[in-house]
Amino acid sequence: MGDKQGLTLCFIGCGNLGTAILGGLLSTLTEGPEGTCPFSQFIVSVRTEVSVTRLQKEFCQYQVKPRIYQNENGLAVSESDVIILATDPADIASVLTAQEEIDKVPGLYPPEHVWVTRTLPNVAALVHQGLTVIKTPYPSMPTSYLALTKAIFDRVGKTIVLPPSLLDAATVVGGSTPAFFAIICEALIDASVAVGVPRGVAHAGIAQAMLGTAHMLQAGMQPAVIKDLGTSPEGCTMSGLMVLEEAAVRGHVGRALREAVTVARLMGSDVHLNDTRK
């Protein structure tokens, strides 16, 4: 791929996250956090007719519409400058080892003109508030390619670049925690209903409280400071916090994150001291 404008971006697979990323690009073709979008054409290759129909409906609102192919990975790749493998990690090997993909995408044995980087977006990309972890590129990789990668994923949230040694942990810190937060919110909403608050009101209230807390954290406030600001002697908040402490919620939440990281690492071969199993 040369240094040029008007590139063609290809998605192999396009589930929830792929759809969110492509939608973020299509909605910011002229303006975005990184300036003008470097892509002018988009191609998607999916397996089923159902997916083709879903994507046609999803993207019909945009002025620039992606070309959508069914089971034409090789053709899609041959017409593109940049390729995103937006499939489930378990499916990537089968996608790359199909004969036509071996002919079109030397991804398993990349020559000098092909660069591969790993990205880990999270589910919040669905509302353009995601966190995408980008693997530190090879030293020989041109800096313009990292800039291009960031330009893609900055349109659906924020990006950070981390070395390979941190990717398993980052998978959990960025990718698993939305599910953890959702469980906590669900428990708070159900408890609110139990004490008489209508479910819709409880949902809106808990969501706004979490959003406000997130903004305070992003502004640099430490969690302990936020906690102290919301408590008073013999107050209701402190009484609730004591229940959480007595139940060792802090320790269990920390262990849940460590367990998730352990499983992520077990998918590879590294051993780390703080893992919860050997």
Automatic annotation (TrEMBL):
- Residues reported to bind NADP(+): I12, G13, C14, G15, N16, L17, A86, T87, D88, P89
- Keyword annotations: NADP, Oxidoreductase
Q: Which InterPro entries match?
A: 6-PGluconate_DH-like_C_sf (IPR008927), NAD(P)-bd_dom_sf (IPR036291), P5C_Rdtase_cat_N (IPR028939), P5CR_dimer (IPR029036), Pyrroline-COOH_reductase (IPR000304)
Which processes are annotated in GO (biological process)?
L-proline biosynthetic process
- Which residues are in the Pyrroline-5-carboxylate reductase catalytic N-terminal domain? 9-99
Supply the SUPFAM superfamilies for this chain.
Answer: 6-phosphogluconate dehydrogenase C-terminal domain-like, NAD(P)-binding Rossmann-fold domains
Q: Which amino acids does the record list as binding NADPH?
A: N73
Keyword Nucleotidyltransferase assigned to the entry: answer is no
Q: Which Pfam families match?
A: F420_oxidored (PF03807), P5CR_dimer (PF14748)
Q: Which domain of life is it from?
A: Eukaryota
Q: Which residues form the Pyrroline-5-carboxylate reductase dimerisation domain?
A: 165-265
What range does the record give for the signal peptide? Answer: none
Q: Mind listing the GO molecular function terms for this protein? A: pyrroline-5-carboxylate reductase activity
| Assigned protein family | Belongs to the pyrroline-5-carboxylate reductase family.
The UniProt entry, under PANTHER family, shows: HYPOTHETICAL PYRROLINE-5-CARBOXYLATE REDUCTASE (EUROFUNG), PYRROLINE-5-CARBOXYLATE REDUCTASE
Q: What protein is this chain from?
A: Pyrroline-5-carboxylate reductase
Which species is listed as the source? Metarhizium robertsii
Phylogenetic placement of the source organism? Eukaryota, Fungi, Dikarya, Ascomycota, Pezizomycotina
